[in-house]
Amino acid sequence: MERKTRRNLRERFALKNSIVKEALAEFLGTFVLILFGCGSVAQTVLSRGAVGEMLTIHIGFTLGVTMAVYVAGGVSGAHVNPAVSLAMLVLGKLKLVKFPVYVLAQFLGAFAGAAAVYGLYYDAFMDYTNGILIVTGPNATAHIFASYPGRHLSILNGFIDQVIGTGALVLCILAIVDGKNNGAPKGMEPLVIGLIIMAIGVSMGLNCGYPINPARDLGPRLFTAVAGWGRDVFSAGRNWWWIPVSGPLVGGVVGAVLYLLFIELHHAEPQKHLEEENSVKEKKCRKITVDGGLKCKTFEELSRSFDFRSLNMKVGLMRGGSQYPAFSSCYEPGKKHPIAL
Q: In whole angstroms, what is the distance from residue 43 CA to residue 117 CA?
């Protein structure tokens, strides 16, 4: 009964349009990323460091990306990042018609994830800020959701920071999913991709907190703009907001092109296609009747399968029309055959 109910639900509600299914996967994957990532920042900031530190934030984003890829990877590839989607588009691994759909789903997922974190810690936000949500200052909380530059950071250096960080991200992702490279064991790709985030976080987080994802930064920033922090989220840091949007897009393309030029273009092509291999096997095969069943095997396979010294059957070689129907080679007149029985 339960199986029948599930089958009926699947037949009634299961989506048929592949683009819609992939968009939902991107939405949910990005939602999970923000829930764990920004959630780890909120816990650290709102507890004033009592329940969290920089390392826990790195772990939160690492596991957030890992879980996001597990959630959406089998459906959409789990880009959960417009910079990754753009890189795949440039490499011809994503259709143009899907690109805007993926990007929209990622931004909406990030917005929803930020809303979930705010709802989760609403009372903590009110206690920390006394109900006054501000972008800068000692009780600022906008940086829980989006990146803001360090006091030492210029706009140009921030842009370069995002290009390098996102380029490293995309380059490493391409190496992990490249079947002709070492890659990662099947099913372990999300965990290894998450470790890229850890590596970037512990090495490139000083300047602005490694957003390296336009959806991860702009989606929550839009949420803060409408949830009470106001327009200051866009003007703060000398109008910083566009840097973590444009920089990662450029960096993603740079990383993809570098991997293509330095690694992917130089992979050795397979020596033979599967069809050619099957053709060679077919020419070398021998047909033998065993207990009334007709099987086609190579001599090497036959020698492993049978003890010819005790083989109790009528075996004959068919060359043209032979009176020994039990055994026949794939004989072609005028050609040498490697096995003569």
A: 10
Burial class (CB in 10 A: 0-12, 13-18, 19+), 253: buried
3-state secondary structure of 287: strand
Which tokens belong to 261?
Answer: 């030029």
Output the six-digit token pair for 219.
């989606």
Strands 293-297 and 327-329: unpaired
pLDDT digits (tens, 9 = 90+) for 42-62: 999 999 999 999 999 999 999
Q: What is the pTM of this model?
A: 0.79
Q: Is residue 146 a contact partner of residue 114, using CB atoms and an 8 Å limit? A: no
Q: Evaluate if residue 322 carries a pLDDT over 50.
A: no
Q: Which long-range contacts (CB under 8 A, 24 or more apart) does 233-239 make?
A: 233/135, 233/142, 233/146, 236/135, 236/136, 236/142, 236/148, 237/148, 237/149, 238/149, 238/155
- Degrees (nearest 5) of the Cα angle 36, 38, 40? 65
Amino acid 301: pLDDT: 55
The H or E element containing residue 297 is strand 293-297
Residue 310 pLDDT > 90: no
Average pLDDT over residues 162-182: 97
Residue 286 β-bridge partners? 297, 329
Q: At residue 330, does pLDDT exceed 90? A: no
Coil, strand, or helix at residue 120? helix
Give the integer Cα–Cα distance in Å for 125 and 118.
8
- Please give the biggest Cα pair distance in the chain: 100
